[in-house]
Amino acid sequence: MSSATSSIPAAALPAESTPADPNRGMLLFCLFALYVVWGSTYLAIRWALQGGFPPFLMAGLRFSLAGLILYTVLRVRGYANPSAREWGAGALIGTLLLVMGNGGVVFAQQYVPSGVAALVVGSVPLWAALFGGLFGQWPGRAERWGLAIGFCGLILLNLGSDMSGNVWAAFALLVGPITWAFGSIWSRKLPMAQGLMSTATQMLTGGALFLLISFLLGERLTALPSPRALGAYFYLVFFGSLVAFSAYGYLLRNARPALATSYAYVNPMVAVLLGTFLAGESLSTWGMLAMGAILGSVVLLTRAKR
Fold first, then answer.
1. I need a surface site. Which of 47, 71, 73, 84 has the fewest CB within 10 A?
2. 3-12, 200-209, 292-301 — which is least confidently predicted?
C-alpha cells in the first residue's frame, strides 16, 4: 500500500531519480499486491459484469466508493484537504489512468477476446519505458532485456487467441495502455497531493467521470446484481482499488517505471492460473514456457538498479 510518510512530494522529485532508500519491504508488498491482486481482478470484473453490473457504472461506483473511503480515513487521520492545484492534477491523472486507461480496456473487452486484451495491455511497460526515457529516465540494460523477454512471454501466453474484434474496441484497447503509461510517468512531474491523498483524488475524480459517462450512455441497474457479482464488486473496491491502486501510486513514486509497470506482464499469467484452478481451464505447454519467460523478465526487472 502506498505510504504517506515521505516528506518529499512526488512532483519535487527529478524525473531521472527516485528516493534514495525506499522501504524494501514496502516495495515487495506493493509488487505482490499488483502482481497477484490485479491479476485476480480479471476474474472479478468478469463475474461483476456477468452478474448484472453495466461496465462504466460498475467502474464509477467502484472507484467513487474506494476514493471516498480512503479520503475520509485520511482526513480523520489529520491529512490536509488537497489544494485546488492538487485536485486538478489528481483529476488529470485519474482521467488518464482510470477513465481512458482502465475504461478503454473495459470497453474493449465487451468485443475483443481476453487474450488480445491481455496482449495489448502487456505493452504498458514498453510505453512506460518510452515515456520515461522522454522524461529523462531511460531503462538500463537489464531492464531492456526484462522488458523484451516479458513481452515475448506474453505473446507465447496468448498463442492461439482469436485475434478478431471490433475496430473501435481495438482502437480503445490501443489507446488505453498508452494513456495509462503516459499518466503514470507524467504524474511524477505534476503537483500531486502527498502520499495516499494523491490516490484518493484520482479515484474520486475518475469515479465521478465514470458515473457521468455511464449516465450519458443510459446505463442502469435493471435488477439487483447476483451475490457473486456483489462479492466481486466489493473485492474490486477494497483489494483492486484501495490496496492495489494505492500500491501502484507508491511504486510510481519509489521505483523505476519499468518495475512499477511490470505487473502488466504478470497479471495475465495470474489470470490464466486462476482460470486453470477455479474455472477448469487447461494450461498448455506454450503457457508453461510463457510463464517461465515472464518470471525471468520479472527477475531482471527487480534486480536492476533503480
1. 84
2. 3-12
User: CA-CA distance, 107 to 116, in Å (whole number)?
Assistant: 13
Q: Is pTM, for the whole model, over 0.85?
A: no
**The three grid cell numbers given for residue 153, joined into one nine-digit string:** 512471454
State residue 159 phi and psi, 5-degree precision: -60, 135
Determine the length of the chain: 306
Residue 114, H or E segment: helix 114-121
186, 127 contact by CB (below 8 A):
no
| Helix/strand number for the chain, H first, E second | 15, 0
Q: What is the pLDDT of residues 34-68, one digit of tens each?
A: 988 888 887 788 888 889 999 999 999 999 999 99
Tell me if 62 sits within 8 A of 287, measured CB to CB.
no
> Which range is least confidently modeled, 170-174, 205-209, 252-256, 278-282?
278-282
Of 116, 130, 206, 127, which Cα lies nearest the Cα of 169? 116
In the DSSP assignment, the letter for residue 293 is H
Quick one: CA dihedral 194, 196, 201, 206, positive or negative? positive
CA distances from 267 to 46, 159, 164, 257, 294 (A): 15, 16, 22, 17, 10
Angstrom CA distances, 155 to 13, 124, 178, 296, stand at: 35, 14, 18, 15
**Per-residue cell: 124:** 504498458
Q: Tens digit of pLDDT for each residue in 3-33?
A: 333 323 333 333 334 444 457 888 889 988 9
H helices present in 187-284, as ranges:
196-216, 227-235, 244-254, 257-260, 263-278
